[in-house]
């Protein structure tokens, strides 16, 4: 076993992080955050903590209604690995060809999808992967530190569960993963090799329907509920004076003058039918001092106004959330089935199975589509009989993914407009750290981590 170098990162004691005072030109500004997913709301937290007057705008009727609604929500810096990795094209191909595999390329892929796939293959070469992985992990480590600080500062009951187990069906795949353990240990991650018996000690309900060669245990990974967390954070921010304008779509970002000007359109059609609270109407225009785009997959229109087209595409994934019928058969925390990339997580009295890759024209969401079918199979394979199948909540979400799998943070060609985008399949892991980076940059201070490879400017190089 490799030596374990534990990196225990704790929330800073004594409340808000102390920062140097703002230069006069950056003195409390009015900052508009567009997008109230987990990334936008975390960004609003750090901007408010830096002393700014913050307005969050979203076309939906509440926070976390799009990609942040029902993802798997496993956060572990050791798992912050870009999807453009040397082993991934093979895994996608196998899962695409498999009769019930969770990878689906729908007919009618757009030219943008094809271009993305070609660039993704290029980024999967070993040298490119190592560089991209280092960039993503840098942000994921900051994400862990920043989320602990945020949870402590805002006194959020995050309801997180600790621990995640990666399950390997074949000796070959397990050997390839364990070969990486010394590298992970040197980088300070706690990852423990687990025999099949040890896997069953960690997750006693694991069934023996699928072959189990062994696992890797990540005791300091955490699994949360992204929508719950984001709603708690919204509540704390509202109490601290942050304004939220819902059902308001920013359909124009005018940067022709010195100051950005936002035009808003009311979107009553995007109401959440379950919402009993109706937020007041948003104004028609806003002229903040600075704008941060946290608009997830649907950012192309606003980015075009800035002369940018970074080339990320929406890669769809699914989740099925179910009540638990037999607790003794259910997972205690989180497992990831390495053969398919599908995860199964425990969320209080419910469990969620999530994953899949779907590119191309979107079809009606249905419980027996190819990806949901693959999720059902993985869930039944590892935790058969655990779930109450009567009322499943089936969800599809779109991950904004660059071919290199790294997010885009910070400056744009307009000095008062910033981006916090393209978090792919790691948005929950990095949201708090990415928000902290943005707040520092908007405030005219250096970012807390090296942003090499994580900016729009680095894409152009
Ligand atoms: C199946 C699946 C599993 C996942 N599992 C994990 C995991 O285990 N760990 C992990 O770290 N991450 C995971 N993720 C990724 C994570 O969920 C996302 O990266 C994260 O939720 C993205 O958050 P966001 O705030 O950027 O986007 P979103 O939540 O989509 O928020 C963007 C918001 O912008 C708003 N918006 C867009 N345009 C406008 C406009 N013009 N005007 C007003 N509002 C606008 C939208 O309404 C939306 O609310 C998973 C994703 C999927 C799909």
TrEMBL record:
Please list the GO terms describing molecular function. oxidoreductase activity
Domain FAD dependent oxidoreductase, residue spans:
30-441
Signal sequence residues: none
Which residues span the membrane?
A: none
Does the record carry Oxidoreductase as a key word? yes
Q: Tell me the keywords, alphabetical order.
A: Oxidoreductase
Give a single Pfam family match. DAO
What family is reported? Belongs to the DadA oxidoreductase family.
**Which protein is depicted?**
FAD-dependent oxidoreductase
Protein's organism: Derxia gummosa DSM 723
The taxonomy runs:
Bacteria, Pseudomonadati, Pseudomonadota, Betaproteobacteria, Burkholderiales
